[in-house]
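Sequence, structure tokens passed on for absentees:
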Amino acid sequence: MSNATLVLLITAAILAQVAVFGLFGWLRQRAQLRVLERRGEGGAGGAVRMVGKPEQDQGLDPAPVAQAPAWPGHREFVVQRRVIEDGNGAVCSFYLSPADGQPLPTYRPGQYLTFKLEVPDPTGGPPKTLVRCYSLSDRPRTDCYRVSIKRVPPPPGRPDLPAGVVSNHFHDQLKEGSRVWARAPSGHFFLTQDSALPVVLIGGGIGITPLLSILNTMSDRADPREVWLFYGVRNGAERIMSEHLKTLSEGQPGFHLHCCYAVPDPDDLLGRDYQQQGYVDLALLQRTLDFRRHEFYVCGPPAMMESLVPALAAQGVPAADIHYESFGPASLNTRAVHVSTTRANTSVVRFSRSGKTVSWDGAAASLLDLAEGQGIVVDSGCRAGSCGTCQTRIESGAVTYSQAPDADLKPGHCLLCISTPTTDLTLTL
């Protein structure tokens, strides 16, 4: 074989190899684009715009329809087991089995259950029906669900104020064999199944519960993605499921655990029990994570949510890569980061029953926040569009939702917690 022929053969082999790699690269890019299209990247921040349905003669669009629940209404569950999860005895896991004995449907890890409970009135009056949402804290199983609930004490320095009614009811009244009623799992905070991005879970206090569901699901399914868990608590006594997290971190090379203690106890040892003194913040994430693109899941108290979520967005993390769950006041400013700048208008909101009128300028995150800011008392539970407690009649006007409601809407009503006005609006409040 001549040298010229040999050179031609080598050149042909190299060109063939380049073509094969080019074809694989093109196919991989197409697959990634399909994933991004399914996740809604490149759109308007992933927000879902929907219009509420007041009375039919007002000529407004139909109410949005959320994904059908796994079962209609409420289903009865039996408490099979209780487990205290922290050193203070403030967090208890409740293992709930269906009373009808039928297999439970799966759910998206990160979602929650909506409970309806008859709670005795401490003043001796008739029992009150209360609705609360609690995150599922384990991977989906067919025989039971698990929720891990923190007992809520009176506010700091105010022992005269009442403690959390429903959380204390769970801790004090629900024993093994007790029965509760719950709606099917729901919620818009859950693990993206078809993403290949490494996952960053950030939990503060009891906000770790939906992240445990995500973490346990990924472990059970041998998900190949790398996972970082940044978990912030005051000290080791507040940390829940320590042994379980330790076992996962020691047995799975792709799982990286970083615990932050704000005020460590003398027995808490740096490097053994926690990796940093202080709080989970942007600086810690920048020091720990590499420069790859990550998918963030954040759930915690108001201070964490209101600082960390906007900080991630300010650092250029795409909105589609930031998922967050917040309860109570934590929902106020974080939702406004993504929503209020595009939905601010000069609508006028009238509260007919209280006789108050206020201009809508986008400063409030929702109509519920606007009403509370005017001193109007509104019954509310999940503040996430699931429980339906804040459902209010629309007398005139229209609203838009930040996400599809999970609760069943009565005709002519809206959910204040996830809605903002699109026109001048009159509410029966």
